[in-house]
Amino acid sequence: MAEIAAVMDDVEPPASLAQLAAIHRWPGGRRPRSVSLRELCRRHEEPARTRRLLVQNTWLLPGVDLRTWCQGPAGRYLIDTHLTRIGAKPDRERRARELGARIVSDGYDWVALCEAFGVNADWVIEGIGTPGPGVSRGPAASSTRVGIGHHEAAALASILPQTHPLAAALLTLGPVSCPPFTERRVGAPTLDSGLATLSRDPTDLAGAASHAYDNKGEPLRDIDFWSAKGVQLSVLDIGVGRVEIYNTHLYAGGHLAVDPTPLERTEVKRAQVGEVVAFVREQHDPANVAIVVGDFNIDGLDPTDPAYVELSAALGDLGMDDLWRQRSVTAGVVTPGPTALMDDEDELTWRGAEVCDLGADGRCAESAGPVPTDDPPERIDYIFVERQRPEHAFLLDLTRPRRVSFTRAPGEEVARLSDHAGLATTLIASTLPD
Predict the structure, then answer these.
(1) Are residues 328 and 407 in the same domain?
(2) Shared-domain flag, residues 206 and 256
(3) Taking the CA atoms of the chain, what radius of gyration do you get in angstroms?
(4) 332 and 368 together in one domain
(5) Would you say residue 175 has pLDDT above 60?
(6) Residues 404, 424: Cα–Cα separation, whole Å
(7) pLDDT in tens, 249-275
(8) Which of 15, 53, 54, 383 could pair with 108 as two cysteines, CB 3.0-4.6 Å apart?
(9) What's this model's pTM, rounded to 2 decimal places?
(10) Domains held by the chain: number
(11) Are residues 26 and 127 in the same domain?
(12) Any residues with CB less than 8 A from the CB of 262 and at least 6 apart, and which?
């Protein structure tokens, strides 16, 4: 029993059979009154049907490439001129390749990535090496540009502080003659979704689908507008059945000319959560176990925060629970589990041990202690798991989730591979009991 207990919770292993049974899942979601150790052993001793899952925001944003162009009929772009790039993250190629290597060395089987835009995801895959993984990607970049008019851009430039990174670029537009029947526009090519789910064994990948968000913010207010953020489904075979992983990255808002109000941010996120729920309802096969993961940009550090309560209720309507709050319990208390680890992005400084006491194994210690209250960190990355249902074709148990942070060699300017902690858990699938 001790061996199974240490697998299911390596921070505070259950001390009794009743406690061990309580962190396993049961047919129909109901634990029987009498639980045998033999049944628990059966689940863990069946032929290996385990997969290690990593959910990771990669911090690989290439930036918004602001341009001005003359737009003609049928989407023709003439006199296409680069103005500035905003939001590019440092040392992307090397960090991406290192992440791929760490996925292999740390033994992850399924990896749900977000903020891995375009070639950045390719670099992660190349870092994994050969044989390459199965790859499921989210919505692609749109070939149609969206921009604002030249006069609107000039008016915006006139109200921005001269130190704003957009101001100089917009003020350099000046009068430019466009060919007849074309219109001067200012905007950016759209990035893809930044979503990619990787399966180390390509044969695990049994299907895929995706949806790009209809609600995405405003063009010169929200950097998210210039990507095809959405939700991406990967159907993965685990031997005795299939797991559906819905990977998403919700709107953050701002980072361009004028920041949205808190209410505007809330409304966009609420709409996107609604789109996630609708997509799951449309795609879900009741025989499979559904898991929704990703960076929601909704803080759940305080479980009474109205935005988190609303998120939990929306996914609760799908029969899903936040795995962290369900399983990351130490001394009877749910551990805080913040996932935003960077202190100052401009200075490339990191939060200390009070947020993530990082061990030699690259995992944060999960104590029940308090986090800073003067500048509290955020818990914005999640794993929501569908409750065990009678319709499911198999049982799926999950180990206690752990936060992981990939450190780099001493002397690197960027000390970690991402500004987010990843979330890791092991999925253990077994046949239904007789």
Answers:
(1) yes
(2) yes
(3) 23
(4) yes
(5) no
(6) 7
(7) 999 998 877 789 999 999 999 999 999
(8) 54
(9) 0.94
(10) 2
(11) no
(12) none
User: Whats the size of the chain, residue-wise?
Assistant: 434
Distance of CA 248 to the CA centre of its chain: 6
29 and 104 inside one domain: no
User: Is residue 221 one of the residues assigned to a domain?
Assistant: yes
Determine whether 321 is exposed, middle or buried from the number of CB atoms within 10 Å of its CB (0-12, 13-18, 19+): middle
The region of weakest confidence among 83-87, 98-102, 146-150 is 146-150
Instruction: Count other C-beta atoms under 10 Å from residue 273's C-beta.
Output: 22
The structure tokens listed for 96 are: 């991406």
Q: Is the peptide bond before 401 cis (omega within 30 degrees of 0)?
A: no
Question: Is the torsion defined by CA of 370, 376, 382, 385 positive or negative?
Answer: positive
Contact 18, 380 (CB under 8 A): no
Note down the domain range covering 275: 46-62+91-144+192-430
Between 232 and 177, residue with greater pLDDT: 232
Residue 269 lies in a domain: yes
Residue-wise DSSP of 3-24? HHHHHH-SSS---SHHHHHHTS
**pLDDT value of position 222:** 86
Q: How far apart are CA 252 and CA 230, in angstroms?
A: 13
We report the CATH number of the domain holding residue 257 as 3.60.10.10
Q: Are residues 213 and 306 in the same domain?
A: yes
Same-domain pairing of 404 and 293? yes
Query: Is residue 412, in this structure, part of any structural domain at all?
Result: yes
Strand partners, 54: 111, 424
Tokens representing 179? 């060919």
368 Cβ neighbours under 8 A, 6+ residues apart: 330, 331, 332, 333, 334, 335
- Asked whether residue 136 is assigned to any structural domain, the reply reads yes
Structure tokens at 419: 């500004």
Residue 172: per-residue pLDDT:
61
